Amino acid sequence: MVDIVTENQLPLCLQLKDDCTFESFYAGSNAHIINIIKRAILSPHDEFIYIWGRKGVGCSHLLQAACHFATLHQRASLYLPLKQQLNTNILQDLERTDLVCLDDLDAIAGDKLWEEAIFYLYNRIKTSQKKLIIAAQQPPKGAHIQLMDLRSRLEWGIAVQVHALEDNDLVCALQLRAKKRGMQINQEVAEFIINRVTRSMSSLYLTLEQLDVASLTLQRKITIPFVKKILKL
């Protein structure tokens, strides 16, 4: 039997966020990506998916959601954010894990040791019939990877772009996340927020968390005057 590291044994930077699930991800035009990931996780064959999109569109959320989904289906998984300056030794034996998700590929581009380590991990995962999902801000050909063998591997699988949401979808996404947190935010307030905060999902969710904490502390409903006060607008 393979020994799998449990979630509470992992460093904090590697632990999944509880709210990063497919159910809390407002997909909009990206709905097909969720279907692709789910099918790959449940497939009996080796699978490789490369997702890419600019910072804040939700790539990290999707990778963590993939791990949560794998857990629900009794698959072992691991989420690794490469921007955390991890040691390449962490990739050893990961071909025994059903699903490996590598986030922030851009962070190791040009690093010979890391590029070689990921190349060999890719090959081991394929041989072991496991799954690998990689996320980056650029498509495979634009990822600035120097190792030609790894660059070719990145182009072998399914590559899909995660698109930024339109304004209407941003409002719905914000309201969905608020609902998941037990908050009530009407459309007018949601529109007010997205027109005054950086329009990336990560920034909007951080703002929502700030408002949630303030609302609970002050026992106030989230209204436009309240948002103005808390965000100092």
From TrEMBL:
* Domain of life of the source: Bacteria
How is this protein named in the record? DnaA regulatory inactivator Hda
Residue span, Hda lid domain: 167-231
Any idea where the Chromosomal replication initiator protein DnaA ATPAse domain is?
16-160
Q: Which GO terms describe its biological process?
A: DNA replication initiation; negative regulation of DNA-templated DNA replication initiation
Pfam families (alphabetical) = Bac_DnaA (PF00308), Hda_lid (PF22688)
